[in-house]
Design a protein that fits this description.
By secondary structure, the chain is an alpha+beta fold. 26% of the residues lie in helices and 22% in strands. It is elongated, with a radius of gyration of 26 Å. GO terms for molecular function: 4 iron, 4 sulfur cluster binding; cyclic pyranopterin monophosphate synthase activity; GTP 3',8'-cyclase activity; GTP binding; metal ion binding.
Protein backbone atom coordinates (compact mmCIF):
# COMPACT_ATOMS: atom_id res chain seq x y z
CA UNK A 1 0.00 0.00 0.00
CA UNK A 2 2.85 2.40 0.79
CA UNK A 3 4.44 2.00 -2.62
CA UNK A 4 1.25 3.35 -4.24
CA UNK A 5 1.67 6.73 -2.50
CA UNK A 6 2.51 9.42 -5.02
CA UNK A 7 5.94 10.95 -4.51
CA UNK A 8 7.26 8.29 -2.15
CA UNK A 9 10.73 7.43 -3.44
CA UNK A 10 12.11 5.00 -0.86
CA UNK A 11 10.69 2.41 1.54
CA UNK A 12 13.29 1.13 3.97
CA UNK A 13 13.50 -0.94 7.13
CA UNK A 14 15.94 -1.27 9.99
CA UNK A 15 16.09 -4.86 11.19
CA UNK A 16 18.10 -7.17 13.41
CA UNK A 17 18.29 -9.49 10.40
CA UNK A 18 17.31 -12.71 12.20
CA UNK A 19 14.46 -13.53 9.78
CA UNK A 20 15.64 -11.46 6.84
CA UNK A 21 16.73 -14.30 4.56
CA UNK A 22 13.28 -15.90 4.83
CA UNK A 23 11.17 -12.74 4.54
CA UNK A 24 13.16 -10.56 2.15
CA UNK A 25 11.95 -11.99 -1.19
CA UNK A 26 8.33 -11.17 -0.35
CA UNK A 27 9.29 -7.81 1.15
CA UNK A 28 11.11 -6.93 -2.04
CA UNK A 29 8.05 -7.83 -4.10
CA UNK A 30 5.97 -5.61 -1.84
CA UNK A 31 8.23 -2.66 -2.62
CA UNK A 32 11.01 -2.61 -0.03
CA UNK A 33 13.88 -0.63 -1.53
CA UNK A 34 16.43 -0.11 1.26
CA UNK A 35 17.74 -2.16 4.18
CA UNK A 36 19.61 -1.28 7.37
CA UNK A 37 20.81 -4.24 9.43
CA UNK A 38 21.85 -3.69 13.04
CA UNK A 39 24.93 -5.76 13.90
CA UNK A 40 27.27 -4.77 16.73
CA UNK A 41 29.71 -7.68 16.62
CA UNK A 42 31.14 -10.32 14.29
CA UNK A 43 31.88 -12.74 17.15
CA UNK A 44 29.07 -15.32 17.47
CA UNK A 45 29.45 -15.77 21.25
CA UNK A 46 29.45 -12.01 21.81
CA UNK A 47 26.44 -11.68 19.50
CA UNK A 48 24.51 -14.19 21.61
CA UNK A 49 25.35 -12.27 24.77
CA UNK A 50 24.32 -8.90 23.31
CA UNK A 51 20.98 -9.92 21.79
CA UNK A 52 20.15 -12.70 24.27
CA UNK A 53 19.58 -15.30 21.56
CA UNK A 54 21.43 -17.32 18.98
CA UNK A 55 21.25 -16.15 15.40
CA UNK A 56 24.53 -14.61 14.24
CA UNK A 57 24.72 -16.92 11.25
CA UNK A 58 21.11 -16.12 10.35
CA UNK A 59 21.97 -12.43 10.29
CA UNK A 60 24.93 -13.07 8.00
CA UNK A 61 22.69 -15.21 5.80
CA UNK A 62 20.26 -12.29 5.63
CA UNK A 63 23.04 -9.91 4.57
CA UNK A 64 24.09 -12.21 1.76
CA UNK A 65 20.45 -12.70 0.71
CA UNK A 66 20.02 -8.93 0.43
CA UNK A 67 23.12 -8.70 -1.76
CA UNK A 68 21.89 -11.61 -3.86
CA UNK A 69 18.56 -9.83 -4.43
CA UNK A 70 20.33 -6.72 -5.68
CA UNK A 71 20.23 -4.33 -2.73
CA UNK A 72 23.28 -2.10 -3.05
CA UNK A 73 24.54 -0.96 -0.73
CA UNK A 74 23.25 -3.02 2.14
CA UNK A 75 23.73 -0.82 5.20
CA UNK A 76 25.13 -2.46 8.35
CA UNK A 77 24.77 -0.35 11.50
CA UNK A 78 27.34 -0.91 14.27
CA UNK A 79 27.24 1.04 17.53
CA UNK A 80 30.86 1.19 18.68
CA UNK A 81 31.49 0.92 22.43
CA UNK A 82 34.80 0.91 24.22
CA UNK A 83 35.42 -2.34 26.02
CA UNK A 84 32.95 -4.26 23.87
CA UNK A 85 33.59 -4.06 20.15
CA UNK A 86 36.04 -1.29 19.27
CA UNK A 87 38.58 -4.04 18.61
CA UNK A 88 36.41 -5.26 15.70
CA UNK A 89 36.58 -2.08 13.60
CA UNK A 90 39.07 -3.52 11.11
CA UNK A 91 37.10 -6.77 10.82
CA UNK A 92 33.94 -4.84 9.93
CA UNK A 93 35.80 -2.77 7.34
CA UNK A 94 37.32 -5.93 5.84
CA UNK A 95 33.78 -7.08 4.97
CA UNK A 96 33.53 -4.24 2.47
CA UNK A 97 36.42 -5.58 0.39
CA UNK A 98 34.33 -8.23 -1.33
CA UNK A 99 30.77 -7.21 -0.46
CA UNK A 100 28.75 -4.13 -1.51
CA UNK A 101 28.12 -3.05 2.08
CA UNK A 102 27.97 0.36 3.70
CA UNK A 103 29.27 -0.40 7.20
CA UNK A 104 28.12 2.52 9.35
CA UNK A 105 29.93 3.06 12.63
CA UNK A 106 27.67 4.94 15.05
CA UNK A 107 29.02 6.82 18.04
CA UNK A 108 27.57 5.52 21.31
CA UNK A 109 24.68 7.86 22.15
CA UNK A 110 22.98 8.65 25.46
CA UNK A 111 19.28 8.11 26.04
CA UNK A 112 17.20 8.60 29.14
CA UNK A 113 17.98 5.85 31.63
CA UNK A 114 20.96 4.14 30.02
CA UNK A 115 23.45 5.43 32.61
CA UNK A 116 25.47 6.74 29.70
CA UNK A 117 29.22 6.98 30.30
CA UNK A 118 31.19 9.20 27.96
CA UNK A 119 34.23 6.96 28.53
CA UNK A 120 32.39 4.25 26.59
CA UNK A 121 32.11 6.48 23.53
CA UNK A 122 34.67 5.92 20.79
CA UNK A 123 34.77 9.13 18.77
CA UNK A 124 34.69 9.41 15.00
CA UNK A 125 38.24 10.79 14.95
CA UNK A 126 39.56 7.86 16.98
CA UNK A 127 37.81 5.32 14.75
CA UNK A 128 39.04 7.07 11.60
CA UNK A 129 42.61 7.11 12.92
CA UNK A 130 42.44 3.35 13.55
CA UNK A 131 41.28 2.72 9.99
CA UNK A 132 43.87 5.03 8.42
CA UNK A 133 46.69 3.23 10.21
CA UNK A 134 45.61 0.03 8.49
CA UNK A 135 44.53 1.59 5.18
CA UNK A 136 46.38 4.90 4.60
CA UNK A 137 44.74 5.16 1.17
CA UNK A 138 41.27 5.55 2.74
CA UNK A 139 39.54 8.37 0.88
CA UNK A 140 36.55 10.54 1.79
CA UNK A 141 33.52 10.41 -0.48
CA UNK A 142 31.32 13.39 -1.37
CA UNK A 143 28.15 13.57 0.70
CA UNK A 144 24.70 14.97 0.14
CA UNK A 145 23.80 18.18 1.92
CA UNK A 146 21.32 16.44 4.23
CA UNK A 147 23.45 13.35 4.86
CA UNK A 148 23.85 12.23 8.46
CA UNK A 149 26.92 10.09 7.72
CA UNK A 150 30.50 10.81 6.68
CA UNK A 151 31.39 8.25 4.01
CA UNK A 152 34.82 6.81 3.12
CA UNK A 153 36.07 4.18 0.72
CA UNK A 154 39.20 2.09 0.34
CA UNK A 155 40.26 1.99 -3.34
CA UNK A 156 39.51 -1.42 -4.82
CA UNK A 157 36.93 -2.36 -2.19
CA UNK A 158 33.36 -3.02 -3.36
CA UNK A 159 31.74 -1.40 -0.34
CA UNK A 160 32.34 1.64 1.84
CA UNK A 161 32.38 2.71 5.48
CA UNK A 162 30.54 5.60 7.09
CA UNK A 163 30.58 7.35 10.44
CA UNK A 164 27.51 8.77 12.18
CA UNK A 165 29.02 11.41 14.44
CA UNK A 166 26.02 12.41 16.55
CA UNK A 167 28.14 13.08 19.62
CA UNK A 168 31.52 14.45 18.51
CA UNK A 169 30.43 16.39 15.39
CA UNK A 170 26.71 17.11 15.29
CA UNK A 171 24.98 17.59 11.93
CA UNK A 172 21.74 19.16 13.13
CA UNK A 173 21.98 22.12 10.79
CA UNK A 174 21.61 19.95 7.69
CA UNK A 175 19.62 17.01 9.09
CA UNK A 176 16.20 16.74 7.43
CA UNK A 177 14.93 13.72 9.39
CA UNK A 178 11.43 13.84 10.87
CA UNK A 179 9.97 10.94 12.83
CA UNK A 180 6.38 10.00 13.57
CA UNK A 181 5.94 7.72 16.57
CA UNK A 182 3.53 4.81 16.61
CA UNK A 183 1.15 6.81 18.83
CA UNK A 184 1.02 9.72 16.40
CA UNK A 185 3.56 12.22 17.72
CA UNK A 186 6.04 14.13 15.59
CA UNK A 187 9.70 14.31 16.67
CA UNK A 188 12.00 16.70 14.81
CA UNK A 189 15.13 15.45 16.60
CA UNK A 190 15.96 12.02 17.93
CA UNK A 191 17.68 13.70 20.90
CA UNK A 192 14.94 16.22 21.51
CA UNK A 193 12.35 15.63 24.20
CA UNK A 194 9.67 17.79 22.57
CA UNK A 195 6.87 16.11 20.62
CA UNK A 196 3.88 17.46 18.67
CA UNK A 197 0.70 15.35 18.58
CA UNK A 198 -0.42 14.97 14.97
CA UNK A 199 -2.91 12.40 16.25
CA UNK A 200 -4.86 15.00 18.21
CA UNK A 201 -5.02 17.36 15.23
CA UNK A 202 -6.20 14.56 12.92
CA UNK A 203 -8.90 13.49 15.37
CA UNK A 204 -10.03 17.10 15.58
CA UNK A 205 -10.55 17.07 11.80
CA UNK A 206 -7.52 19.14 10.74
CA UNK A 207 -7.12 19.63 6.99
CA UNK A 208 -3.92 18.79 5.13
CA UNK A 209 -3.03 22.49 5.02
CA UNK A 210 -3.46 22.79 8.79
CA UNK A 211 -1.28 19.73 9.34
CA UNK A 212 1.38 21.26 7.11
CA UNK A 213 1.35 24.41 9.25
CA UNK A 214 1.68 22.35 12.46
CA UNK A 215 4.59 20.39 11.01
CA UNK A 216 6.21 23.54 9.65
CA UNK A 217 5.97 25.24 13.02
CA UNK A 218 7.59 22.23 14.73
CA UNK A 219 10.43 22.22 12.22
CA UNK A 220 10.81 25.98 12.65
CA UNK A 221 11.35 25.50 16.37
CA UNK A 222 14.10 22.96 15.78
CA UNK A 223 17.32 24.07 17.42
CA UNK A 224 20.52 24.79 15.53
CA UNK A 225 22.16 21.89 17.34
CA UNK A 226 21.15 19.37 19.96
CA UNK A 227 22.35 19.63 23.54
CA UNK A 228 25.83 18.50 24.48
CA UNK A 229 26.46 14.87 25.30
CA UNK A 230 26.46 15.43 29.06
CA UNK A 231 23.20 17.38 28.93
CA UNK A 232 21.54 14.79 26.68
CA UNK A 233 22.40 12.00 29.08
CA UNK A 234 20.36 13.79 31.77
CA UNK A 235 17.35 14.65 29.59
CA UNK A 236 14.03 12.85 29.79
CA UNK A 237 13.58 11.68 26.23
CA UNK A 238 11.19 8.99 25.05
CA UNK A 239 13.04 6.61 22.69
CA UNK A 240 11.32 5.37 19.55
CA UNK A 241 11.93 1.66 19.81
CA UNK A 242 9.08 0.43 22.06
CA UNK A 243 6.44 3.12 21.75
CA UNK A 244 3.98 0.96 19.84
CA UNK A 245 3.55 -1.39 22.81
CA UNK A 246 1.68 1.34 24.65
CA UNK A 247 -0.99 1.50 21.96
CA UNK A 248 -2.30 -1.72 23.47
CA UNK A 249 -2.79 0.09 26.77
CA UNK A 250 -4.03 3.60 26.05
CA UNK A 251 -3.55 6.50 23.69
CA UNK A 252 -1.50 8.75 25.92
CA UNK A 253 0.33 6.53 28.40
CA UNK A 254 1.55 7.90 31.74
CA UNK A 255 5.03 7.25 33.06
CA UNK A 256 6.70 5.20 30.35
CA UNK A 257 9.20 2.42 30.80
CA UNK A 258 12.19 3.36 28.71
CA UNK A 259 14.60 1.33 26.68
CA UNK A 260 18.20 2.12 26.14
CA UNK A 261 21.52 0.74 25.09
CA UNK A 262 23.76 0.04 28.03
CA UNK A 263 27.54 -0.15 27.96
CA UNK A 264 27.15 -3.54 26.31
CA UNK A 265 25.05 -2.10 23.54
CA UNK A 266 22.06 -4.06 24.61
CA UNK A 267 18.51 -2.75 24.50
CA UNK A 268 17.17 -2.90 28.04
CA UNK A 269 13.99 -2.19 29.95
CA UNK A 270 14.68 0.38 32.65
CA UNK A 271 11.66 0.01 34.89
CA UNK A 272 7.99 -0.80 34.98
CA UNK A 273 5.57 1.79 36.29
CA UNK A 274 1.92 1.18 37.22
CA UNK A 275 1.32 -1.70 34.81
CA UNK A 276 -1.62 -4.00 35.24
CA UNK A 277 -0.91 -7.72 35.24
CA UNK A 278 -2.25 -7.85 31.69
CA UNK A 279 0.20 -5.20 30.55
CA UNK A 280 3.10 -6.97 32.21
CA UNK A 281 2.12 -10.09 30.28
CA UNK A 282 2.03 -8.12 27.04
CA UNK A 283 5.39 -6.60 27.89
CA UNK A 284 6.99 -9.98 28.51
CA UNK A 285 5.43 -11.55 25.47
CA UNK A 286 5.77 -8.67 23.04
CA UNK A 287 9.08 -9.74 21.58
CA UNK A 288 11.17 -7.53 23.86
CA UNK A 289 14.50 -9.17 24.73
CA UNK A 290 15.18 -9.47 28.44
CA UNK A 291 18.73 -8.27 28.34
CA UNK A 292 21.61 -7.42 30.64
CA UNK A 293 21.02 -4.38 32.81
CA UNK A 294 23.64 -1.89 33.94
CA UNK A 295 22.52 -0.09 37.08
CA UNK A 296 24.51 2.47 39.02
CA UNK A 297 23.43 3.42 42.52
CA UNK A 298 24.97 5.89 44.91
CA UNK A 299 26.37 4.98 48.30
CA UNK A 300 26.60 7.92 50.68
CA UNK A 301 26.92 11.41 49.25
CA UNK A 302 29.16 10.88 46.24
CA UNK A 303 30.57 7.37 45.95
CA UNK A 304 29.04 5.44 43.02
CA UNK A 305 28.39 1.74 43.28
CA UNK A 306 28.17 -0.15 40.01
CA UNK A 307 25.82 -3.11 39.55
CA UNK A 308 25.55 -5.54 36.67
CA UNK A 309 22.65 -7.94 36.25
CA UNK A 310 21.63 -10.16 33.38
CA UNK A 311 17.92 -9.84 34.14
CA UNK A 312 15.34 -7.09 34.48
CA UNK A 313 15.69 -4.71 37.38
CA UNK A 314 13.12 -4.56 40.18
CA UNK A 315 12.08 -1.31 41.77
CA UNK A 316 11.25 -3.22 44.94
CA UNK A 317 14.80 -4.51 45.30
CA UNK A 318 17.50 -1.84 45.07
CA UNK A 319 20.31 -4.36 45.30
CA UNK A 320 21.71 -6.00 42.21
CA UNK A 321 21.88 -9.41 43.82
CA UNK A 322 18.25 -10.45 43.65
CA UNK A 323 16.60 -13.22 45.63
CA UNK A 324 17.03 -16.73 44.39
CA UNK A 325 14.85 -18.06 41.61
CA UNK A 326 11.41 -19.47 42.55
CA UNK A 327 11.59 -22.94 43.94
CA UNK A 328 10.75 -25.84 41.71
CA UNK A 329 8.27 -28.38 43.06
CA UNK A 330 9.85 -31.44 44.62
CA UNK A 331 9.27 -34.85 43.12
CA UNK A 332 6.00 -36.45 44.14
CA UNK A 333 7.77 -39.22 46.03
CA UNK A 334 9.35 -36.70 48.38
CA UNK A 335 13.01 -35.80 48.85
CA UNK A 336 15.61 -38.50 49.29
CA UNK A 337 18.13 -38.30 52.13
CA UNK A 338 21.66 -37.16 51.36
CA UNK A 339 23.87 -40.00 50.13
CA UNK A 340 26.65 -41.35 52.36
CA UNK A 341 28.60 -42.57 49.34
CA UNK A 342 30.33 -40.81 46.47
CA UNK A 343 28.25 -41.12 43.33
CA UNK A 344 31.01 -40.71 40.73
CA UNK A 345 32.87 -43.92 41.57
CA UNK A 346 31.86 -47.51 40.89
CA UNK A 347 31.92 -50.43 43.33
CA UNK A 348 35.65 -50.91 42.70
CA UNK A 349 36.50 -47.26 43.33
CA UNK A 350 37.05 -46.27 39.70
CA UNK A 351 35.62 -43.07 38.28
CA UNK A 352 32.22 -43.46 36.65
CA UNK A 353 29.62 -41.17 35.16
CA UNK A 354 26.26 -41.36 36.91
CA UNK A 355 23.48 -42.92 34.81
CA UNK A 356 20.59 -40.46 34.88
CA UNK A 357 18.61 -42.13 32.10
CA UNK A 358 15.91 -43.40 34.44
CA UNK A 359 15.60 -40.32 36.62
CA UNK A 360 12.50 -38.16 36.11
CA UNK A 361 12.75 -34.74 34.49
CA UNK A 362 12.13 -31.92 36.97
CA UNK A 363 12.67 -28.19 37.00
CA UNK A 364 16.15 -27.58 38.44
CA UNK A 365 17.50 -24.26 39.73
CA UNK A 366 20.86 -23.64 41.40
CA UNK A 367 22.43 -20.46 42.73
CA UNK A 368 26.14 -20.10 43.52
CA UNK A 369 28.23 -17.17 44.67
CA UNK A 370 31.84 -16.02 44.84
CA UNK A 371 33.72 -13.06 46.27
CA UNK A 372 36.75 -11.39 44.71
CA UNK A 373 38.78 -9.36 47.22
CA UNK A 374 40.27 -6.76 44.89
CA UNK A 375 42.11 -4.39 47.18
CA UNK A 376 41.70 -0.59 47.17
CA UNK A 377 43.52 0.16 43.88
CA UNK A 378 41.78 -2.39 41.64
CA UNK A 379 38.44 -1.71 43.33
CA UNK A 380 38.68 2.02 42.58
CA UNK A 381 39.59 1.42 38.92
CA UNK A 382 36.71 -1.01 38.44
CA UNK A 383 34.29 1.31 40.22
CA UNK A 384 35.27 4.21 37.95
CA UNK A 385 35.59 1.92 34.89
CA UNK A 386 39.17 3.02 34.29
CA UNK A 387 40.88 -0.32 33.64
CA UNK A 388 42.95 -0.30 30.46
CA UNK A 389 41.55 -3.70 29.50
CA UNK A 390 38.01 -2.34 29.50
CA UNK A 391 34.87 -2.90 31.53
CA UNK A 392 35.81 -5.67 33.94
CA UNK A 393 32.27 -6.24 35.23
CA UNK A 394 30.83 -6.62 31.75
CA UNK A 395 33.56 -9.03 30.65
CA UNK A 396 33.21 -11.09 33.85
CA UNK A 397 29.45 -11.28 33.37
CA UNK A 398 29.87 -12.55 29.82
CA UNK A 399 32.51 -15.07 30.94
CA UNK A 400 30.23 -16.41 33.66
CA UNK A 401 27.38 -16.96 31.22
CA UNK A 402 29.67 -18.70 28.73
CA UNK A 403 31.20 -20.86 31.46
CA UNK A 404 27.83 -22.15 32.62
CA UNK A 405 27.08 -23.38 29.11
CA UNK A 406 30.50 -25.08 28.82
CA UNK A 407 30.53 -26.81 32.21
CA UNK A 408 30.34 -30.36 30.86
CA UNK A 409 33.42 -29.64 28.74
CA UNK A 410 35.37 -28.39 31.77
CA UNK A 411 34.27 -30.85 34.50
CA UNK A 412 34.88 -34.38 33.17
CA UNK A 413 31.95 -36.27 34.72
CA UNK A 414 29.28 -33.61 34.37
CA UNK A 415 26.37 -34.34 32.06
CA UNK A 416 25.66 -31.89 29.23
CA UNK A 417 22.67 -29.84 30.35
CA UNK A 418 20.32 -27.84 28.13
CA UNK A 419 20.14 -24.68 30.23
CA UNK A 420 16.98 -22.65 29.85
CA UNK A 421 18.37 -19.63 31.71
CA UNK A 422 21.66 -18.31 33.04
CA UNK A 423 21.82 -15.17 35.14
CA UNK A 424 25.06 -13.58 36.38
CA UNK A 425 25.05 -10.59 38.70
CA UNK A 426 27.92 -8.55 40.12
CA UNK A 427 27.90 -6.01 42.94
CA UNK A 428 30.76 -3.94 44.29
CA UNK A 429 31.18 -4.03 48.07
CA UNK A 430 33.16 -0.97 49.12
CA UNK A 431 33.49 -2.09 52.75
CA UNK A 432 35.68 -5.03 51.68
CA UNK A 433 36.94 -3.56 48.36
CA UNK A 434 35.38 -6.63 46.81
CA UNK A 435 33.19 -7.77 43.97
CA UNK A 436 30.34 -10.12 44.95
CA UNK A 437 29.22 -12.50 42.21
CA UNK A 438 26.01 -14.50 42.08
CA UNK A 439 25.24 -16.98 39.32
CA UNK A 440 21.89 -18.66 38.80
CA UNK A 441 21.21 -21.53 36.37
CA UNK A 442 17.94 -23.17 35.42
CA UNK A 443 17.13 -26.27 33.38
CA UNK A 444 14.53 -28.99 33.14
CA UNK A 445 16.00 -32.46 33.12
CA UNK A 446 17.11 -35.52 35.10
CA UNK A 447 20.20 -33.94 36.68
CA UNK A 448 20.88 -30.77 38.65
CA UNK A 449 22.66 -27.58 37.64
CA UNK A 450 24.74 -26.97 40.76
CA UNK A 451 27.99 -27.43 38.85
CA UNK A 452 26.88 -25.04 36.14
CA UNK A 453 26.16 -22.34 38.73
CA UNK A 454 29.44 -22.95 40.58
CA UNK A 455 31.44 -22.95 37.34
CA UNK A 456 29.76 -19.74 36.27
CA UNK A 457 30.58 -17.95 39.54
CA UNK A 458 34.15 -19.29 39.60
CA UNK A 459 34.98 -18.32 36.02
CA UNK A 460 33.45 -14.87 36.48
CA UNK A 461 35.75 -14.47 39.52
CA UNK A 462 38.77 -15.70 37.56
CA UNK A 463 37.94 -13.24 34.80
CA UNK A 464 37.93 -10.35 37.25
CA UNK A 465 41.35 -11.52 38.44
CA UNK A 466 42.62 -11.58 34.87
CA UNK A 467 41.24 -8.10 34.16
CA UNK A 468 42.89 -6.67 37.30
CA UNK A 469 46.13 -8.64 37.69
CA UNK A 470 48.21 -5.92 36.04
CA UNK A 471 47.12 -3.55 38.82
CA UNK A 472 47.51 -5.90 41.77
CA UNK A 473 48.67 -9.47 42.35
CA UNK A 474 47.23 -9.39 45.85
CA UNK A 475 43.73 -10.34 44.71
CA UNK A 476 41.99 -13.17 46.57
CA UNK A 477 39.20 -15.37 45.21
CA UNK A 478 37.08 -16.48 48.14
CA UNK A 479 33.78 -17.97 49.27
CA UNK A 480 32.93 -19.90 46.10
CA UNK A 481 29.91 -21.82 47.29
CA UNK A 482 26.50 -23.20 46.47
CA UNK A 483 23.83 -20.89 47.84
CA UNK A 484 20.77 -22.96 46.99
CA UNK A 485 19.39 -25.67 44.77
CA UNK A 486 15.81 -26.68 44.05
CA UNK A 487 14.33 -29.62 42.21
CA UNK A 488 15.36 -33.23 42.03
CA UNK A 489 14.71 -36.30 44.18
CA UNK A 490 17.07 -35.32 46.97
CA UNK A 491 15.07 -32.20 47.75
CA UNK A 492 15.95 -28.57 48.08
CA UNK A 493 19.00 -27.02 49.69
CA UNK A 494 19.27 -23.45 51.02
CA UNK A 495 22.41 -22.26 52.75
CA UNK A 496 21.59 -20.48 55.99
Amino acid sequence: QLRRLEGLRTIGITTNGINLARLLPQLQKAGLSAINISLDTLVPAKFEFIVRRKGFHKVMEGIHKAIELGYSPVKVNCVVMRGLNEDELLDFVALTEGLPLDVRFIEYMPFDGNKWNFKKMVSYKEMLDTLQQQWPELEKLPEEESSTAKAFKIPGFRGQVSFITSMSEHFCGTCNRLRITADGNLKVCLFGNSEVSLRDHLRAGASEEELLRVIGAAVGRKKRQHAGMFTISQMKNRPMILIELFLMHQDSPPALPSTFRNSLGVQVLRRRVNFSSQMVTLWKGGGVPQAPLVAQQWLGASLPQRHFSSHLDSDANPKCLSPAEPRAPAAASGPLPASDQLTHVDTEGRMAMVDVGRKPDTERVAVASAVVLLGPMAFKLIQENQLKKGDALAVAQLAGIQAAKLTSQLIPLCHPVALSHVQVQLELDRTRHAAVIQASCRARGPTGVEMEALTSAAVAALTLYDMCKAVSRDIVLAEIKLVSKTGGQRGDFHRT
